[in-house]
Amino acid sequence: MELNAKIPPGPLKDKWNYYKDHAKLVNPANRKKLEVIVVGTGLAGSSAAASLAEMGYKVKSFCFQDSARRAHSVAAQGGVNAAKNYKNDGDSVYRMFYDTIKGGDFRSREANVYRLAECSLHLIDQAVAQGVPFGREYGGYLNNRSFGGVQVSRTFYSRGQTGQQLLLGAYQALTRQVSAKAISLYTRHEMLDLVVVDGKARGIIVRNLDTGKIERHSAHAVILATGGFGKIYYLSTLAMGCNASAIWRAHKKGALMACPSWTQIHPTSLPQSGEYQSKLTLMSESLRNDGRIWVPLKRDDVRKPNDIPETERDYYLERRYPAFGNLAPRDISSRAAKERIDAGYGIGAQKNAVYLDFSKALKEQGEAKIKEKYGNLFSMYRKITDIDAYKEPMMISPAAHFSMGGLWVDYELMTTIPGLFALGEANFADHGANRLGANSLLQACVDGYFVAPYTVSNYLADEIKTGPVPADSMEFIEAEQKAKELLARLVAIKGDKTADYYHKKLGKLLYDHCGLSRNREGLSFAIAEIKKLRADFYLHLAVPGTPEEMNAELEKAGRVADYLEVAELMCYDALTREESCGAHFREEYQTPEGEALRNDEKFCFVSAWDWRGLDQEPALVPEPLTFENVALTVRSYK
Amino acid sequence: MKIFLKIWRQKDAKSNGKLVDYEMDNVIPHMSFLEMMDTLNEKLVLSGEHPVEFDHDCREGICGQCGVMINGRAHGPLKNTTTCQLHMRSFKDGDTIYIEPFRAEGFPIKRDLKVDRSAFDRIIGAGGFVSVNTGQAPEANSIPITHEIAESAFDSAACIGCGACVATCKNSSAALFTSAKISHLAKLPQGQQEARKRALTMVAQMDAEDFGHCSNTEACEVECPQGISVLNIARMNWEFLKGNVLK
Prior knowledge:
heterodimer, A: about 650 residues, alpha/beta, Flavocytochrome C3, Chain A, domain 1, five-stranded parallel sheet, 17 helices, 20 strands, B: about 250 residues, Ubiquitin-like (UB roll), Fumarate Reductase Iron-sulfur Protein, Chain B, domain 2, 2 domains, five-stranded mixed sheet, 7 strands
């Protein structure tokens, strides 16, 4: 199998225009005969569903939450990047493209990344027109803040709730189309399988989570915008319901997965405080604009942070990366924190955290200014920890956050199954081996508002003669049968361990062996352990009740069943990439200073994986990356 | 800590429900309220009982999915805090905690503590948007909006749609929720074109969903996790009257 990314011809800056000028169109009279399924109602899903419905396509939209407005895009705090150059600080589309390529450690496609930067300009316009209340200067013009990995201010924000505000804009656009009867919306519905007919994606099998009823839905194209799967680590910054099931089940139907092990471990989350803990709350990266990160110079220092004098503090990011300081990119900041914690300088009861200190900013800018910028974050911190961060430093720690990996897609965001598209965090496309802060809201929006309307239309142009897609073909019946069998199998085990028990065990294995740093031995060990854990799961899982009713434990069990398979592929992915790049840090491949050591000669490719069944090793299908516009350099933030 | 729980159990929308007693030993003050519920559910699953169904997702106070009545208060004893952000340090050893679903005509119970809040989506669908299609937007800085207006619009837009305002209101009024969206959009130039019509259609939908009227007790603002101000309701009434007079 050979992968064709379908990059348009011409110079980098003209590729997207070339594509738009040459993409096939569907005339308005034909659009209403064509159906599109969109799974997920986060930024990518809502924006794609709304935009396609506005064009005249018949759209069916699905989410597992009880309202489309609750998808996890809602939790993104800090901001969204755009190369508007409103700050007159030297920003441009090219510079944003370069920052993103470099931030991703040269493991993403030039053409995709350039398009992301180019479309960022329109996204801000679109969001403002929808009524998204971005932060503004007193004169009335839009304001920006800085994020990690860049030297300009290009991040637009709505206090610490930017994801919420952008999502509400997209959600409102979606509900507008629901009211116009252009979208049929199915909340509390979870996708169980993809239906492929004659090699094309033709529909999905879903379970109504309120009633347990299994339904078939057919369409001319299927879009998965189902988000990331960082929750596989159990303790993560993600929502409890985030999962890999939709993309994993599509993978098992033939869609290749790319770089699944590339998970961003976010440097500024709240540390774990006990075994009962269900999630790690993120503190926005925007805090690093004014917060300084440090640990005591002395090991096992038990003094209170305010009692440790300036001279006995190690501001290790400022020390190691003077050019970027506290705004070093996430992978680098997280690894630097782990290095200090592992060396015995960690703070807090479990010695698993570092300080994020605002005292300097508070002294220079005053409490009112800091409150205006980060008020909700400080009050959230107080609610969770009972500590007043205006008086003493926050305690933070790295936590699993964002999946750079996902379904492999070409330039059109189409997977290796014709008619199956993957948008937003569900795909592997723009972020390479490390995502820059405030680029994920951007990617989700750009995929949904600006890319999918062109590329999905280009695909649908060849479907105008297909006619309605029946949902009673053999393929639908078989897929429904298989989905029901899995549910029945899970409740029939009647063992003595909960789905959470397995999820926690799996998460710990991944944190230890496929997290911030990895090595050959650990990954091989993890693969063997995951196989054992999976076997145990099918012998000892306990799920009460039946599949024919509302059953939250069954939902969890289904997701964990998939995680137990995804985890194994993640470890293969990490094991076979014998280099360090971005978030993928292989201990065998590092510089004498402990920085990531890339191997461009052997590993300048995307690892796409083909499913061969549980009893066989997955097959690696590399997509070589070619760089025509940037020189591959050592990624230095020193 | 030892905690005694009285939790509303109801098999489905049609069955009758009742309060069921549970005891929890070894509750740790640092636990979140929902982690305490997780621990209870783990016990129930292992004993073969159906765990307590409750809504939750992000567990950081922003998705709006969680929400139960705790000792008769929406989201529990703390002000402006979602259920998921409440921690067990807010309770004492030996406390008895009553846990019930949000109750309102407009929020039918689905199972145990889960209620159907889709009425909120239909209220937004009745006009809680700016009618702009993808691709129509002008350059973002072409319409300046002062810092104060943008911040004030944000204050209204911050609503997370959890329904605590309805649950806490003696009339089960959705006025705070509806008015927050009407105000958010009416304050911004982008939303002003449709402001009058929006107030009429959204209020009509709110009434059609079996929510009661607002009688200005202001209880909603006290429980709102985002501290949405009741001044939004005043603005809604103003927009509604304006819409009616000028229609």
